[in-house]
Write a structure and sequence with these properties.
Helices cover 44% and strands 14% of the residues. It has 421 residues and is an alpha/beta fold. Catalyzes the demethylation of isoprenylcysteine methylesters.
């Protein structure tokens, strides 16, 4: 069905610290600093007020330290991108456009960054594997009256600068609708190639499927979402898992049947068609082929091509409902990519739908529209599919007010004009 609607962490030098939720017993235990014997006769002099102040000060210092570490990390991501793409006239022009674009959206970015680092609803860098990038962020709704549906989200970033923090705005908006969001980080190039990225994302999905109930999530209502390069990686992980389940000896700790639906936002699914397109836009052929493990691997990591192979045909019926979103003015990845993937899926018996948004660019659906506030058509569509199985129709998401605007309209329009994407 085709519906027309009008209208990046680089290589780290160490592992991030895991921050699991404290148990009630631990939270209720007095600190050693408050209960240390201070009197000559062995008595205890309690100073609850000063102890709480020290605890708050320590917590604030930790948050500032983490914010500084994240800033350093993002700086390294930018330097790595410039290093591998080369610094010529084209990239100087693109970099200046990116600076202008970022400056115009800065009022919204500041609010999202503050939410990311200081909101009690966000649990950052939960460990899901052994690699330094095997971390995910959790966005927890304020209401905890019942188990919540869950979204496992894979961010974009041209396979080079993908980062779990890019999902903060989406995580915030979906959490407001009563949905837990797990933003999965993964190795980027040159720390890893496409095979490593797909492996990391698959491991992250496995963690969500097997552990989300500890955070108030419903393990029977898990949805997979990917954006741009993340949509490609997530689709590869999903299809690879279905193919493994059709074979023998699969020892994976998650199953395709646990994923209720897959949402792909502005993704590319046939790399054979995109090599020259990316080269013209500055992601040079030699670099792209290095990311994708050589020209011979392009077919292997092209979901649209793979579902036509005899080895994968029996796996297609195992796939969940696939819903793709794309803007008709997307120049980074043409909307024809989503259209061709949906057509191929439908031809081989999969349930697939495409939503095209007239005049929307590569970043409009994921960034500018959520920053605009009000009713976001794409997010509303995702939330309606996720909540369609809710038995309680009086749930919190049914009365969510329109989101608050984070950036003035004239700045959003200017950002759209100078956007390098």
């Amino acid at each position: 069905m085709k519906v027309e609607l009008a209208g990046r962490t680089s290589q780290t030098t160490g592992k991030a610290e895991e921050t699991p939720p404290p148990s009630p017993a631990t939270a209720a235990t007095p600190s050693a600093a408050e209960d240390a014997p201070l009197l000559p006769d062995g008595g205890v002099r309690r100073r609850p007020g000063s102890g709480r102040f020290a605890q708050r000060s320590g917590s604030f210092r930790r948050e500032v330290g983490r914010a500084a570490a994240e800033t350093f990390l993002l700086t390294r991501l930018t330097l790595i991108l410039l290093r591998y793409l080369g610094i010529g006239y084209r990239w100087i022009r693109q970099f200046l456009a990116l600076c202008c674009y970022t400056f115009l959206l800065m009022p919204g970015f500041i609010q999202v960054v503050y939410y990311y680092f200081f909101s009690s609803q966000v649990r950052r860098s939960v460990v899901y594997g052994d690699e330094p990038r095997n971390r995910l962020d959790l966005y927890i709704p304020t209401s905890t009256t019942r188990l919540k549906p869950v979204v496992a989200f894979v961010t974009g970033g041209a396979w080079i600068i993908g980062y779990k923090g890019w999902g903060a705005l989406l995580g915030r908006r979906l959490a407001e609708r009563g949905i837990i969001v797990a933003c999965i980080d993964y190795r980027n190039f040159p720390q890893g190639t496409i095979g490593d990225m797909v492996e990391d994302v698959s491991q992250g999905i496995s963690f969500v499927c097997n552990n989300i109930s500890s955070y108030g999530g419903d393990p029977n209502r898990i949805y997979l979402v990917g954006q741009s390069a993340g949509a490609h990686i997530a689709a590869c992980a999903l299809l690879n898992q279905a193919i493994r389940e059709c074979g023998e000896g699969d020892t994976s700790s998650w199953s395709v049947s646990q994923i209720k639906a897959y949402f792909g936002i502005s993704g590319g699914y046939n790399l054979l068609n995109l090599v020259d397109h990316f080269h013209r836009r500055g992601l040079y052929r030699s670099i792209f082929l290095s990311i994708m493990e050589g020209e011979k691997s392009l077919q292997k990591f092209s979901p649209q091509v793979m579902i036509k192979e005899s080895s994968a045909r029996s796996a297609v019926p195992l796939l969940p409902h696939i819903i793709l979103f794309h803007g008709t003015s997307d120049h980074s990845i043409p909307p024809a990519e989503s259209q061709a993937f949906v057509d191929a899926l439908q031809q081989h018996g999969a349930k697939a739908d495409l939503f095209l948004y007239e005049g929307k660019t590569h970043t409009d659906l994921f960034l500018q529209d959520p920053l605009r506030g009000g009713r976001d058509k794409m997010l509303e569509e995702i939330a309606s599919v996720i909540h369609s199985e809710d038995l309680d129709k009086s749930a919190d998401h049914m009365v969510v007010p329109a989101a608050r605007r984070l950036v003035p309209e004239f700045m959003l329009k200017l950002a759209g004009r100078v956007s390098p994407f």
